[in-house]
């Protein structure tokens, strides 16, 4: 029987339409692919699978040989496969200039980079050098603010979604995570402020917080194998996450159907963070 409270013309009576390729014709920039194991590569593959066109960056000529084949696999055009060391004057800016020239707009940016000098990463936070701290904060945190500032004019036309990659060690003390812990705490807070400031322009900023996975960056962390074992044991899923899983969940959050999600830490860790 018809519900007298529902108007027959009410749109709730029509099934919700979900596009098959929800990022079709969307433009996405991915910063942080070092090799095929990078979390950023898992995300780039997923953005592509969801229909997005991609621009990706490489750190320098040395690392380019690990990423050339990946750029090809992702269908990235030469003009949008660009060098980007955020410490090199003008390189990050040049990436956004190229995107402005080639696309004139941008919908998704993934910021998936972090660095701390080895001696500071391996030492106690108590002993962290000023230079090491500043370098870790510059590469791992301030670069996100620069990314957001450069993305803003390209994203405000049609709205956009910015992601940064964090880890639970920014919230709780994780043995051997060292100075990256405070850096991730700063990153998460910065992302929330960016979300608040850019939200009125239709730009979302979210923090993806994956469980540990073996990548080049992770190999710099002492006793990482112990962290992997502990995570597998404690996570409700009983499994470690993969870059592909992180990518697919991140891509879903980049879609219009996640348009109300901003300023959040999105844990992708098999539930590890909820356990006491
Ligand atoms: N692997 C993990 O367990 C894990 C878990 C949670 C979060 N994360 C975070 O994910 C992000 C990606 O790391 P990953 O594990 O995929 O390792 P990765 O080594 O594949 O990626 C790290 C990236 O940072 C880039 N980078 C370093 N210095 C840079 C600079 N000066 N300019 C530009 N790029 C620079 C590297 O080139 C590399 O592409 C990092 O922020 C990391 O902290 C990693």
Structure in words:
There is one protein chain. 39% of the residues lie in helices and 13% in strands. The protein is an alpha/beta fold and 276 residues long. The chain has a 7-stranded parallel beta sheet with strand order 3-2-1-4-5-6-7, sandwiched between helices. Helix 1 packs across helix 8 and helix 5 packs parallel to helix 6. It has one domain: NAD(P)-binding Rossmann-like Domain (Rossmann fold, 3-Layer(aba) Sandwich), CATH 3.40.50.720. The chain contains 8 helices and 7 strands. Bound molecules: nicotinamide-adenine-dinucleotide (NAD).
Strand percentage: 5-15%
Q: C-alpha Rg, in Å?
A: 20 Å
The kinds of small molecule bound in this structure are:
nicotinamide-adenine-dinucleotide
Number of self-contained structural domains: 1
CATH homology superfamily? NAD(P)-binding Rossmann-like Domain
Anisotropy-based shape: globular
Q: What is the string of helix and strand elements?
A: EHEHEHEHHEHEHHE
| Model regions low in confidence, pLDDT < 50 over at least 5 residues | none
Distance between the termini: 49 Å
Proportion of residues in helical segments? 25-40%
Number of contiguous helices: 8
What CATH first level would be assigned? Answer: Alpha Beta
In order across it, which strands form the biggest sheet?
3-2-1-4-5-6-7
Overall residue-averaged pLDDT value:
97
CATH architecture classification? 3-Layer(aba) Sandwich
How many strand segments?
7
């Amino acid at each position: 029987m018809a519900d007298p409270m529902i108007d027959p013309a009410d749109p709730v009576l029509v099934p919700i339409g979900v596009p098959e390729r929800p990022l079709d014709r969307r433009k996405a920039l991915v910063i942080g692919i070092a090799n095929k194991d990078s979390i950023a590569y898992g995300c780039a593959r997923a953005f592509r699978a969801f229909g997005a066109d991609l621009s990706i960056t490489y750190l320098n000529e040395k690392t380019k040989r690990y990423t050339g084949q990946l750029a090809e696999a992702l269908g990235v055009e030469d003009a949008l496969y660009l060098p980007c060391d955020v410490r090199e004057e003008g390189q990050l800016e040049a990436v956004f200039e190229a995107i402005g020239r080639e696309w004139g707009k941008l919908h998704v940016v993934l910021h998936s980079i972090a660095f701390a000098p080895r001696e500071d990463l391996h030492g106690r936070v108590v002993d962290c050098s000023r230079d090491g701290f500043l370098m870790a904060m510059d590469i791992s945190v301030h670069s996100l603010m620069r990314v957001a500032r450069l993305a803003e004019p390209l994203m405000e036309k049609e709205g956009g979604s910015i992601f940064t990659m964090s880890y639970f060690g920014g919230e709780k003390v994780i043995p051997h995570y060292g100075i990256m812990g405070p850096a991730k705490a700063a990153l998460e807070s910065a992302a929330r402020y960016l979300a608040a400031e850019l939200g009125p322009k239709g730009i979302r900023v979210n923090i993806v917080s994956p469980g540990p996975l073996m990548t080049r960056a992770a190999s710099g962390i002492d006793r990482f194998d112990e962290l992997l074992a502990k995570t597998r044991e404690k996570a409700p899923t009983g499994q470690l996450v993969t870059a592909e899983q992180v990518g697919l969940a991140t891509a879903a959050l980049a879609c219009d159907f996640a348009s109300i999600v901003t300023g959040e830490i999105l844990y992708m860790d098999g539930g590890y963070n909820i356990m006491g």
